[in-house]
């Protein structure tokens, strides 16, 4: 279980996270939701120890992440950042192989190659393995970076907007894959997602941030209510039940609830 207790964070002199308290249950998919600029990426990157600051208030199974040696942390937590622009002429397979670095320190073994094959097949992108990443579409590249993160084979995955650039079919494909990682491989996933319908239909748990604070958290039933979402986004949202899960309709909304 990842637990955050009284976490605050500032960029220069601007406080963007204010006394955050949240927990992220084991082997579940938690979506971080909330308006632009609410602090979702900052919280996610703090959990991944990719930002400075005192991280004693973030624990992994009761152990402060600040006390976990870097090599050990890289075998526990894999993080996919929002910006995945890298200026290297490498193939998809070479990119995904980077995910194995914490295991092999740069020398690929049979086990590493199997993990790479598995990650590519898991996202149905094996056919792209010899393509150069600078020749891919934005969506294809997004899938390849996700494969790199999956190939790291860590029990915890932190994903910042993994649905960026993806069409509906590919976005559903990713969310189904993430569910399988939780349900079949018992991984714990925290992702930042803007599409409330994906969050509502694929998550076990939601943490909603607003203006640097936790606005609400809990199960989909607890968080995805008309009143709560309208207060979170300051926007009219109609929630319609369906056999699969709630559908949030915000089209033609005129603004503040
Ligand atoms: N490197 C930085 N330097 C200064 N301020 C930053 C930096 N990164 C983010 N911020 C500010 O911190 C606040 C929170 O940003 P953050 O990216 O965590 O929010 P977010 O909820 O993920 O937003 P979005 O949904 O738009 O991606 C914003 O006001 C943003 O302008």
TrEMBL record:
PANTHER family: IRON(3+)-HYDROXAMATE IMPORT ATP-BINDING PROTEIN FHUC, PETROBACTIN IMPORT ATP-BINDING PROTEIN YCLP
SMART domains found in the cross-reference section: AAA
Span of domain ABC transporter: 2-236
Protein name, UniProt field: ATP-binding cassette domain-containing protein
Membrane listed as a keyword: yes
GO molecular function, one term: ATP binding
Matching SUPFAM superfamilies: P-loop containing nucleoside triphosphate hydrolases
Keyword Magnesium carried by entry: no
């Amino acid at each position: 279980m990842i637990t955050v207790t009284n976490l605050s964070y500032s960029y220069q002199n601007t406080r963007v996270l204010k006394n955050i308290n949240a927990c992220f249950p084991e082997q579940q998919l938690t979506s971080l939701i909330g308006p632009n600029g609410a602090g979702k990426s900052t919280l996610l990157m703090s959990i991944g120890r990719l930002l400075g600051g005192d991280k004693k208030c973030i624990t992994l199974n009761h152990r402060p992440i600040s006390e976990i040696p870097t090599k050990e942390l890289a075998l526990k937590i894999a993080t996919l950042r929002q910006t995945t622009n890298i200026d290297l002429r490498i193939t998809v397979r070479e990119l995904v192989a980077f995910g194995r670095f914490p295991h092999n320190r740069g020398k690929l073994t049979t086990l590493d190659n199997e993990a790479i094959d598995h990650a590519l097949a898991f996202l149905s992108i094996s056919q792209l393995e010899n393509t150069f990443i600078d020749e891919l579409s934005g969506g294809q590249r997004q899938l390849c970076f996700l494969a790199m993160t999956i190939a790291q084979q860590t029990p915890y995955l932190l994903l910042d907007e993994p649905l960026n650039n993806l069409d509906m079919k590919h976005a559903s494909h990713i969310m189904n894959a993430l569910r399988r990682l939780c349900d079949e491989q018992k991984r714990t996933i925290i992702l930042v997602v803007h599409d409330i319908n994906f969050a509502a239909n694929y998550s076990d748990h939601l943490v909603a941030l607003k203006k640097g604070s936790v606005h609400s958290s809990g199960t989909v039933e607890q968080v995805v209510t008309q009143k709560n979402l309208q207060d979170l986004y300051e926007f009219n949202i109609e929630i319609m039940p369906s056999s699969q899960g709630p559908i949030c309709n915000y089209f033609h909304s005129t603004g503040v609830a």
